[in-house]
Amino acid sequence: MDDIDRFALHRHLPTSTRPLLGLTILVIEDSRFACEAMRLLCLRSGARIRRADCLASARRHLQVYRPSVIIVDLGLPDGSGLDLIEELDRLTPRIGIILATSGDDGAEAQAMAAGADGFLAKPVTRIANFQSMILARMPADRQPVGPRLLTEDEVRPDALAYRDDMAHAADLLGEDQDERTLDYVAQFIGGVAHSAEDNQLERAAVALAETRRLGAPTRADTARLAGLVQTRLGERIAM
């Protein structure tokens, strides 16, 4: 726990409606849409949030302060979140709670093997599930006193955050893509589309990823994906 957290605990104790008061959560996430969901979850739960959008940024954050909780997306632009989880798990003293997040099937087993304490399957929107994942891994003296108010509420990120992700995807698709960039853009768009429940776009991203896996030509899949991204940028997205 960093000094800021210790100071906050003297002023704010967790309550039944804001059970994560006093915690600072570092979210390492390249999608603005997914990060906006995390921001809303933290806001509703009483926690403060800090964000890093890549491994390099996360490591710079960690040189300055120690958050109470770290949530690591597994697919990042400069490498795998699994590598960071392994690093964090070896730290002494260890950061209190390390969580992984991904929309990929099978990612949970990889995250837990790397040293994560828990796994948040995307889309992460349910407030009660988010709070329970963290509270179940906290010591008794950090738990809210008395019963906790359970809610079935879900957060809904602003559609503008999705457009920001689509703009970023369009920039990536507009560049000369090497193999690494193609792998990343398929993963990024697929993850964002999965979180936003945009099934058509997710299928197109999965198709590009599968074409890459097979070593087949990617021009048609890349063009289709780019066209769908441009369509979303040109329309008003209702969510």
Automatic annotation (TrEMBL):
**What are the residue boundaries of the Response regulatory domain, all occurrences included?**
24-137
Matches recorded under PROSITE patterns: RESPONSE_REGULATORY
Q: Which SUPFAM superfamilies does the protein's record reference?
A: CheY-like
The protein's superkingdom reads Bacteria
The answer, when asked if Phosphoprotein is one of the entry's keywords, is yes
Q: Which GO terms describe its biological process?
A: phosphorelay signal transduction system
- Tell me where in this chain the PTM 4-aspartylphosphate is found: 73
**InterPro entries documented for this protein:** Bact_response_regulator, CheY-like_superfamily, Sig_transdc_resp-reg_receiver
Keywords (A to Z) from UniProt: Phosphoprotein
Span-the-membrane segments of this chain are none
Q: Does the entry feature the keyword Phosphoprotein, yes or no?
A: yes
The identity of this protein, by name, is Response regulator
The organism's lineage? Bacteria, Pseudomonadati, Pseudomonadota, Alphaproteobacteria, Rhodobacterales
